[in-house]
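FW: tagging you since you asked about this chain on Friday. Here's the raw sequence from the shared folder, copied in full. Didn't touch anything.
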Amino acid sequence: NIKSNISVYNVHIRIFFGCHGLLAVFRVVALKEDPYYWYLSITILLLGFEGVFTMAIKDSPEWKFFNPTIFLYLASVCPSIWLIELDKLDARLAIKEAREAFLRSSLTTNPPTTTQGPDFGFDMMNMNDSVNG
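HL: got it, structure written out here
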């Protein structure tokens, strides 16, 4: 009974890791609009093979010093997250460069027409005379 509970737990963990890995790869494919990135999901297939090997062929339910489940999960998710973050960085840099180009062009094409300060509808010189005198 305990062995079946551990097996159910191990299956659930691998399903969760696989779903999260597929979601991350799907997000990369959607961002990059290139089906080539589906190759990142190969590690998820390996995760399934590892689960079958560990539970059906190997005697103990888990490995002693190295956990290939965690390794394959990280190998599937980390590259996807990295690619998503690089896409966000590229978008931010493009916005920054566009803003800087706009500011440079507006400074060179629209020189200031006056050197006076803003007009608030009253004369500052007369206001200072009435306060002092």
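FW: The chain has a mean pLDDT of 82.
HL: agreed, and The longest helix spans residues 68-109.
FW: great, closing this out.
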